[in-house]
Write a structure and sequence with these properties.
The chain is of the alpha+beta class. The chain has a single domain, classed as 3-Layer(aba) Sandwich (Aminopeptidase), CATH 3.40.630. Strands 1-3-4-5-6-10-8-7 form an eight-stranded mixed beta sheet, sandwiched between helices. Strands 2-9 form a two-stranded antiparallel ribbon. A hairpin with a 4-residue loop joins β7 and β8. The longest helix has 14 residues. It is globular. It starts with 7 loop residues before the first strand and ends in a 14-residue tail after the last strand. This is GNAT family N-acetyltransferase.
Length: about 230
């Protein structure tokens, strides 16, 4: 994939970001979230290994994404390739050009993963619109009207821990925050009432988010079987 015309995308380890890149990421975060919590962003920069930053020909930042391809020992799934998606923010002037998806693709391809029959994708969301693409995957957890199986709950807890979440509710897949909001997404995409169902237990005033996980190209055998224990 290539960036939109006149934009370049560079991927770098978050540990190697200099002051200019960190300032650009913070400025974009503040553009996309009211009352943006800089401490939450800083934690994300420590937890996730890579950042992708898009810039125009004059060097002005157009967007960024945080994330990491990682191999994780999951319940019943040793050495499982996982793609951990993090924050992704795009300057309003560059939205609706496919930049969000391209930034995520760049950061989640930053490290080669070992060959495997399938991989797990994960992300934390604060708004149903962010969950829309993942929720269309038939393997997704959580799902409306379905209680996660014991195995799914255990995998969810392991992924939440990989994100540095200390308080995870395996029944609702809510990652409880530290008591301060992450910020309030500046978003103009409407969500249907049923899309909000999974987000009802998400308390954004304390910094909660919803964890979503899904498989590509398919789930491991028994993924939906409530009789399978982790």
């Amino acid at each position: 994939m290539t960036a939109p015309p006149d934009l370049s995308i560079a991927v770098a380890p978050t540990a190697d970001l200099g002051p200019a890149d960190r300032d650009a990421i913070l400025a974009l975060f503040r553009q996309n979230y009211r009352d943006a919590n800089a401490a939450y962003l800083e934690k994300s920069l420590h937890v996730l290994a890579f950042a992708a930053i898009a810039r125009d020909p004059e060097g002005r930042p157009a967007g960024f994404a945080l994330g990491e391809p990682r191999v994780i020992d999951l319940p019943r799934l040793p050495a499982q390739p996982v793609r951990l998606a993090g924050l992704c923010c795009v300057d309003p002037a560059f939205r609706r050009q496919g930049l969000f998806r391209r930034l995520e693709h760049a950061v989640l391809s930053a490290r080669e993963l070992p060959a495997a029959p399938r991989w797990l994708s994960a992300g934390r969301m604060a708004h149903p619109a962010s969950f829309r693409t993942m929720s269309a995957n038939p393997t997704v957890v959580p799902r409306r009207g379905m209680r996660p199986t014991p195995w799914q709950q255990a995998v969810g807890a392991a992924i939440a821990a990989a994100y540095g979440t200390r308080d995870f509710d395996p029944e609702t897949f809510v990652c409880r925050g530290t008591g301060a909001p992450i910020g309030w997404p500046v978003i103009d995409i409407e969500a249907a009432p049923e899309e909000w169902e999974l987000f009802r237990p998400v308390d954004r005033t304390r910094g909660d988010s919803l964890l979503g996980i899904s498989w590509t190209p398919d789930a491991p055998p028994g993924w939906d079987d409530p009789a399978i224990l982790p």
